[in-house]
Amino acid sequence: MSVRATARIVATREGLPVLASDGPLAVRRTRATGPGPDPGPGTGRGPGHRVTVVGAMSAPLGGDRLAVEVRVRDGARLTVDAAAATIALPGRIAAGADTAEPAHYDVRLTVEEDAELHWLPEQLVSAAGSDLRMRTTVELAATARLVLRDEQILGRHGEEPGTLLTRLTVRRAGRPLLDQELRHGPGAPGGWDGGAVLGGHRAVGQLIVAGPEFEEKPARPQLLGDTAVLTPLAGPGVLVTAVAADALALRRVLDEALNLTAYR
Fold first, then answer.
1. Residues 6 or more apart from 196 whose CB is under 8 A from it?
2. Residue-wise pLDDT tens for the chain (264 aa)?
3. Which of 42, 92, 119, 208 is the residue whose CA sits 20 to 30 A from 224?
4. Model's pTM, two decimal places?
5. What is the CA radius of gyration of the chain?
6. 111 Cβ partners below 8 Å, 6+ apart?
7. Residue 52: how many CB atoms within 10 A of its CB?
8. What is the pLDDT of residue 199?
9. What is the rounded CA–CA span in Å between residue 82 and residue 11?
10. CA 160/CA 113 separation, integer angstroms
11. Beta pairing partners, 66
C-alpha cells in the first residue's frame, strides 16, 4: 500500500511555529545554532534554527508520494539536515500491472527577504529496481541566501541503480536562476553512464550557493580537482557539479567547494 505524507517547517526570527511530521517523514528541532557566521548587529537577521529530518519508516517505495515544505520568514536563519541517507526502494507490483508505480518526492523551499536557508540532506540512494521522480523547487526573495546540497548515489554496494529522475528549479525574485533535470539508471536515455556524462562514476552531486553578495563580487569558473567544476550562474550565485567514485569522495569535494564559495 502506497503512502502519502507531507512534512512542514516554518522558521521565523523568534522560533519554529510550524514543525509538522507526517508518515515516514519526522522532523525534529535539534540545536539552535545558525548556519554560517554570526550576521552581526544591524543586519535584521535573527538567530539560527536547526531541524533534522528523521526517517520513521522505509520510504520512498514505489507508488509513495512524499513532500517536504519549508518556509523561512523574513530575517530568519534555518539549517535543515537529515539523520541518515534516503533510500529509494522498489515497490509492490499491483495485480495486472507489469511494473510498480514510480515514487514521487517533492521538496518545496521558500526563503523570504534577508532570510537564509541551508538545505543539507544526506545522500539519496537509488537502489536496484526502484523508480523515483524527485523534484526540488526553490523560491528566493531578492535578498535571500541559499546553500543547497544535492547528492545522489547510484546503487548500493555491488548493485546497479534504479531509475532516478530529478529536477531542480531555483527562482530568485520571480526570475529563473537554475532549472535542470538529471536522469540515471535503466529508465534513462542511453549514454547516461558513458564518458561524456558520468564516466562510470556512481556518485553525482551539486552544490548551489546564492545570495546578493555575488552581485558585487561574481565568482569565476574553475575546476575543482579532476571531476568537479564551479560555474557562475546567470544571477547572484554559483553551481558546483561533481562526480565521484563513492559517497565519501563526493562529500569531500562538495565540502571543499562550500568553503570556497559561502560567505565570501
1. none
2. 678 999 999 999 999 999 998 888 899 999 755 444 444 333 445 569 999 999 766 678 888 999 999 999 999 999 999 999 999 998 765 544 455 689 999 999 999 999 999 999 999 999 999 999 999 999 999 999 999 999 999 999 888 899 999 999 999 999 999 999 999 988 777 767 777 677 778 899 999 999 999 998 888 999 998 899 999 999 999 999 999 999 999 999 999 999 888 654
3. 119
4. 0.90
5. 18
6. 72, 117, 138, 139, 140, 141, 144, 145, 146
7. 17
8. 77
9. 17
10. 43
11. 5, 105
SS (H, E, C) the chain: CCCEEEEEEEECCCCCCEEECECCEEEEECCCCCCCCCCCCCCCCCCEEEEEEEECCCCCECCCEEEEEEEECCCCEEEEEECCCEEEECCCCCCCCCCCCCEEEEEEEEECCCCEEEEECCCEEECCCCEEEEEEEEEECCCCEEEEEEEEEECCCCCCCCEEEEEEEEEECCEEEEEEEEEECCCCCCCCCCCCCCCCCCEEEEEEEECCHHHHCCCCCEECCCCEEEEECCCCEEEEEEEECCHHHHHHHHHHHHHHHCCC
Cell 541503480 found at = 161
Cα distance between residue 78 and residue 34, in whole Å: 7
Grid coordinates of 141 = 526573495
Distance of alpha carbon 108 from alpha carbon 136, whole angstroms? 6
Q: Which residues of 215-226 are buried (b: 16+ CB within 10 A; e: fewer)?
A: eeeebeeeebee
C-alpha torsion sign, points 260, 257, 111, 17:
negative
Residue in the structure block whose three cell numbers are 545522500: 123
At position 198, the amino acid (one-letter code) is L
